[in-house]
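Job type: complex structure
Entries:
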Amino acid sequence: MKSINDVNFKGKKVLLRVDFNVPLNDRKEITDDTRMRESMPTIKKLLDDGAALIIMAHFGRPKKGGFEEEFSLNPVAKHLSEMLGKSVLFTQEVLVDTVAGFSANLEDGDVMLLENIRFYPEETKGDIGFAEKLAKLGDAYVNDAFGTAHREHSSTATIARFFPNDKYFGFLMESEVKNLEKLIHNPKKPFTAIVGGSKVSSKIDILKNLAPIVDNIIIGGGMTYTFLKAMGINIGTSICEEDKVEMAKELMKDMEKNNTKLILPIDHIIADKFSNDANTRMTSDQSIPDGFMGMDIGDKSIEMFKNIILDSKTILWNGPMGVFEMSSFAKGTFAIAEYIAKSTKEGAFSAVGGGDSVAAINQSGFAKDVSYISTGGGAMLEYLEGKVLPGIKAIID
Ligand code: AMP
């Protein structure tokens, strides 16, 4: 993998694709600039070398084709300028043709941010003509947008064709790719995947792809109950995808064939309604009485999962163990975070990814104690499903 570290970009105009899709409040203030901070090492390296930057980013999902105030990167441009302590040339124009003039006049160390690249419908189609126009703006291409690596868009994938010898991963992308490869190719054994969240349907492909790779799959969260139902166990009013019960049966057979242990919770915290102030209690076994729903894993399950986690050398966590957004049902999820952190301290490699798991590990206070937290929810999930990510392939090919 060619790293930007091996190259000096002095005097080059670098087209840099980043993921600056940050959350804004009603006053158009950035409420969390994590994504911007994560690409700072790449930006700083390129600027320290003496490159001029042409930054490409998207914001939200504009639909109309053309400028829409609501999706403008203007607040991001202002914040970027503050972060860098220098002015950023923000191209309000939507047409790439107009921008070419600005680009031609950029000097070493200058930073230009293009307006939301998705104002062009060509972008999400991966249009080659559009990619070529973009490519003409610079001399090298660096992709640091792991969050969009699963999209075959003009600025995330197609554009790389125009830089056969000058295309690179930024530091963030490079680290994501290295960590994911470490996880899927030659992981240290035992390898345990902990998969939770609300639905089996959204995790089926991951479970199928992981089955031959991992030793243990721990299931938690709402998807537990579709599996228990498949086993003929009473699940009360717990969340269940009736139409996925057969699929759950097949998955269980799949695991058996692959000698992968599928481990389900053996007890639960149950509630009489989906609410933090519901009447709750812990079951003594796997079954759930009528009128109650499973909301979190129980103490015996936590203990069982803990032992497996502490015995593992590679751990992947995706999806909470319960409705952790409600304090009454957060214990299982936070306990898992704690034991993953402990196992990591004892030498395991741990990876956490997927929107809710990242929120959960952050809330648990153990985020700093795991080996790797993925910044790309959808991209990481597709990688774990065994798909080739166009943003990665475009650079490697
Ligand atoms: P996902 O996006 O599929 O990873 O699901 C995450 C969501 O699953 C979170 O919002 C959790 O509140 C929810 N969840 C976890 N456990 C349960 C459960 N036992 N019943 C209903 N929802 C759950």
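Summary: Residues 197-199, 202, 221-222, 239, 294-295, 319-320, 322-323, 325, 354, 356 surround adenosine monophosphate (CB under 6 Å). The longest helix spans residues 331-345.
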